[in-house]
Amino acid sequence: MADYIRARSPEQKQERMEAIMAAADALFQEHPYHQITMGTIAEQLGWSRSNLYKYAATQEEIFLALHSAKNRAWLEGLASALAAAPLPDAEFARIWAETTAWHAGFLRYQEIVISIIESNVTLERLTEFKRDFADMLAPVLAVLERQCGLDEAAATSLYLRLLYQAPGIYNHYHCAELTREAMRAAGLAEPAGSFEEEYADFTAMCLQHARR
Question: Residue 2: its pLDDT value, please?
Fold first, then answer.
């Protein structure tokens, strides 16, 4: 086991949490969520589980922090890439889809956030998570408001529609090899096109619908 020294300062605690998040993220790239435990995260770090529990009470708490970090990166990317909005809808939709594809790792976390990640954390931690989400969302809502001439409530509804659809479309084009093999064996055609094309089409449709 790697040498372990307990963090004392806030900076050291932040460094430990970042190391924990990196370890959990690395595991999630290789394994489905149900195969990851506090024990496997501790092993990835070279720590004991008791040392890991000094910084996180559950693995869902770790994944909640990972979701926040990856969501923030995606939202900042969208706000930056679409700063010139309003744009022609086709261009806006293309940029939105391409930026989302660049942050596709976030979509795996979004896919499980409500059904799994939020299920085993404290009310205090979940409330903090929701407040952080509201704060980081504001710049993207402003972009959607400018693009479609919407108020904040309508922009929020549009954003959530785009958010919730993205993981499903992405998985349609990036399914596991076992799924592809099963489709071929069943005589089903593999998806034509790409995530970026399909998601851009969906985004453009939602922009037009939001103006009605």
Answer: 46
The three-point CA angle 135-136-141 to 5° equals: 95
Instruction: Give the tokens for residue 167.
Output: 């993981």
Do residues 120 and 58 make contact, with C-beta atoms less than 8 angstroms apart? yes
Annotate 15-74 with DSSP letters as a single string.
HHHHHHHHHHHHHHHHS-GGG--HHHHHHHHT--HHHHTTT-SSHHHHHHHHHHHHHHHH
Report how far residue 67's alpha carbon sits from residue 108's, in angstroms, rounded to the nearest whole number.
9
In this predicted structure, the answer to whether residue 76 has a pLDDT above a threshold of 80 is yes
pLDDT class of 169 with cuts at 50, 70, 90: very high
Q: How far is the C-alpha of 169 from the C-alpha of 161, rounded, in Å? A: 12
Q: Which residues contact 163 (CB under 8 A, 6 or more apart)?
A: 110
Structure-block tokens of residue 179: 């799924």
Query: What percent of the chain clears pLDDT 90, i.e. is strictly above it?
Result: 75
Give the Cα separation of 100 and 111 in Å (integer). Answer: 14
Cα–Cα distance measured from residue 41 to residue 125, given in angstroms and rounded to the nearest whole number: 20
Could you tell me the two tokens for 82?
């679409």
Determine the pLDDT at residue 1.
42
Grade residue 74 by pLDDT with cuts at 50, 70 and 90.
very high
User: 19: closest CA among 45, 39, 1?
Assistant: 45
Q: Which two tokens stand for residue 147?
A: 């693009």
